[in-house]
Structure formats: C-alpha cells, structure tokens
From TrEMBL:
The chain crosses the membrane at residues 12-35, 41-62, 74-91, 97-120, 224-244, 250-268, 280-300, 306-329, 341-360, 372-392. It comes from Corynebacterium heidelbergense. This is Major facilitator superfamily (MFS) profile domain-containing protein. GO terms for cellular component: plasma membrane. The keyword rRNA processing does not apply. Its main location: membrane. Residues 213-409 form the Major facilitator superfamily (MFS) profile domain. It comes from the Bacteria. PROSITE patterns: MFS (PS50850). It holds the Pfam family MFS_1.
Length: 409
C-alpha cells in the first residue's frame, strides 16, 4: 500500500523560531522605548499588563475563528494582522499606539501558536503520539530558543537603530512566516465542517474548555500545571531579590540564574520528544514534585553553584510538564478542536502566571526572597502530590477522545 506523502515540518519550525526570536526582540525594544521616552515604570508595567489581559480575556473571544477557517488560514490571517500592527508602530511610534499594538500582537499570537502546533502535528512524516510529541518538542525548542536569545539581540538593535530597526526586523520575519505557511502548510477543513456548525457564539467559545474539564485526565493535568505555574511565578518575582540580597551578588548572577532555568527548559523540550500519552501522567507528577523539591532546596541552600544546578533541573521538569500537558490536551479533544484546546491551554496558563505574579510581591515582602523559594517549592510539590493521588488511579482507557492515535475505539 502506498502511503500518502506528508510534507516536512522543518521550514515551518524554522520560520516559527525566527518569529519567536524577533517577537522577543521587539518586546525588549518596545519596553526600552517606553522607559526612555519619559513614560517610566508605569508604562512598562502597562505593556506587560496589556499582554496578559489579551492572553486571558481577548484570545478566548477570537478562538471561534477556528470553527470557520482552517488552521492554515487562521495563521495566515494572524500574520497579516501582525504586519499591519507593526507597520502602524513604524508610522506612529507613540506610547498609545504601542499599547494597542501590544494587545493586537498578543491576541494574534494566541491563535497563531495553536494553529502552527496543530499544523505541525498534521505535517509530520509519521503519525501517532510519538510523532506528535516530537513535533511539539521541536516547536517548543524553537520558541524557547527564540525567547532566550531574542532579548539580547533586541537590545543591541535598539542601540543601533532604535525601535524602527527592531520592528522592521520583525516585519521581515513575519513575512517569512507567512510565505512558509502559504507554501508548506496543508489546507484542511475548519472545525465547523465536523463539529458544532450550528452552535451559538458562547458555545463555540466554551467548547474546548468544556471538553477539557469533562475529561478526567486533562482536568487533573491542568490542576497540576496550574499549581506549578502559580508557585513558580512567585519564585520568578523572588529571584532578583534572592540574587541581589540573599546571595549578595550582582546583575550578572541574576542573569545566570535566569538562564539556568531557561537552558533547563530547552533541554527538557528536547527530552520531551520521546514522550507518549501513557507516560504523560507520570511526567506531570514526577516533574512537579522534583521541581518543587529543587526550588525548596534553593531556598534552604542559599548557595550560588547549587542554585544554578537546581534551577537547571527545575527548568527541565517545567518543560516536561508543559509537553505532557500538551499531549494530554491533544488526546482529550477531537482533532478538529485541538487548535482551540491549545489556545485554551495558553490562556489558562497565562491566568495562572498572572495570579502567581500578583501573589509574588506580598509573599517576598512578608517572607523574604529565600523563604519565598521555600514556599514556592513546598506549594508546587504538595499540590502536585495531592492532585496526582486521584489522577494516577483513574482508568486510562476512558481518557482519550475516540479517533486519537492511541485510542482503540
């Protein structure tokens, strides 16, 4: 039997890396522009807040677009909107325009990412959960690597040519992404073709969250990851004070500690390519407990070398958890609803992060940076263990949506 040829994913993954890189570059350039033009810390905070609000509140309102358009068409549309908003920044580089375009960019990213993840799962040379995990891992690596090196390049570009150079570079990358989507991405049918074409607007918004909450595996997976994100967000707030006050070090040490976690996430994304659905639950549980213990040890140990190693381990665990969550989400919904489910995953994770950041300041002020690490580690490990007790004893045969590669129905 002749198998249908499935296009290679490398061009799209490479374009996604370039887009992630330039997006991180522009984010730094926008923040520096706002800070240097008399708007101060409130302006930078407003940009970050607009980013979070768009991810949490606006993205869920636009995900019904997947019911009418294929993922390829959604991604192309997002690219065009991004180009228009970047052009607006070039024409009118004012703070109000930056805020509006930040909201637009965060909203389009909330549908672009899920569309690309779904397209890559369709485009791989093989099928099945292992192939999905490999494609997701490569995209995670591209996204994390772009986010790791993008800020440094963005700062350099701002020094060389100001905001305009950084924005122009992102426009070029967005154009490349659009061309790759147009040439390499498969068309496919929208979700409406098979699911809920007559649903109301509210039903289409809530379709993916409802399916994910009804499935025991995805529900408990979200509980585990939400707990980890909230408590690790507290640690993120505490990290700069831990480096400067507890370790009595400088900005370079803070950067090294931050990069240790990021490098761990990069390695974890590569390791996650071997993951399958049968082991996703154990990765979620083990990753949460080990990450919690690592953060706990950082708070107790208060040693620079040990902290770097422990944060590296925590980064590996964090990346493994995210990959396991994505596989669980993928298997919990019909294939046509996966882009909306991935978007739901991003919005809920952003909401958990915002809660953690809101709690981080008061916790650090009350307990100190080192004790905030201890609380972060204890909370992550304890809640992971509590939520996993029921999750690991659930009958796995009922947790995958019929038609998934690992479903036998």
């Amino acid at each position: 039997m002749i198998e249908k040829h499935r296009p290679a994913t490398s061009p799209l993954i490479l374009a996604y890396f370039v887009a992630s890189l330039t997006s991180a570059m522009t984010a730094v350039a926008v923040s520096v522009f706002a800070a240097r033009h008399g708007h101060g810390a409130a302006a930078v905070s407003s940009i970050l807040l607009c980013n979070a609000i768009a991810n949490i509140a606006l993205v869920p309102l636009v995900v019904p677009i997947f019911d009418g358009w294929s993922p390829r068409r959604v991604a192309l549309f997002a690219s065009v909107v991004d180009l228009a908003s970047l052009a607006l920044i070039l024409i009118l580089p004012s703070f109000p325009v930056l805020l509006v375009c930040t909201v637009i960019g965060s909203t389009t990213a909330g549908i672009m990412g899920p569309a690309i993840y779904h397209l890559v799962s369709l485009m791989g040379p093989d099928s099945g959960e292992h192939a999905e995990a490999k494609g997701y891992a490569r995209l995670d690596t591209a996204r994390l690597l772009g986010g790791l090196i993008g800020p440094g390049i963005g700062g350099a570009l701002f020094q060389l040519g100001g905001l305009g150079l950084a924005v122009s570079t992102e426009m070029a990358a967005t154009t490349i992404m659009g061309c790759c989507l147009a040439v390499f991405a498969p068309g496919g049918r929208p979700a409406t073709a098979e699911h809920g074409g007559q649903q109301s607007f509210i039903s289409r918004i809530t379709q993916a969250p409802r399916l994910l909450l009804q499935n025991p595996a995805s529900r408990h997976a979200f509980q585990i990851v939400w707990s980890a994100i909230i408590f690790t967000s507290i640690y993120n707030v505490a990290l700069v004070f831990f480096a400067l006050d507890t370790l009595r070090a400088g900005g370079i040490t803070f950067a090294v500690l931050t990069q240790a976690f990021m490098v761990g996430r990069l390695l974890g994304a590569r390791v996650a390519s071997r993951l399958d659905g049968q082991h996703a639950a154990r990765v979620l549980t083990t990753g949460g407990i080990v990450m919690g213990l690592a953060l706990l040890a950082v708070g107790f140990g208060r040693n620079l070398s040990a902290s770097i190693a422990l944060l590296f381990v925590a980064g590996i665990c964090n990346s493994g958890q995210v990959s396991a969550l994505r596989l669980t989400v993928s298997s919990a919904v019909p294939a046509a609803v996966r882009p909306k489910a991935f978007s739901t995953m991003g919005s809920t994770n952003s909401a958990a992060m915002l809660i953690g950041y809101a709690l981080g300041g008061p916790v650090v002020n009350c307990l100190g940076a080192a004790n905030a690490f201890v609380l972060s580690g204890c909370g992550t490990a304890a809640l992971t263990a509590v939520f996993s007790a029921r999750y690991l004893t659930t009958d796995r045969s009922s947790l995958r949506f019929p038609g998934h590669p690992c479903s036998h129905e």
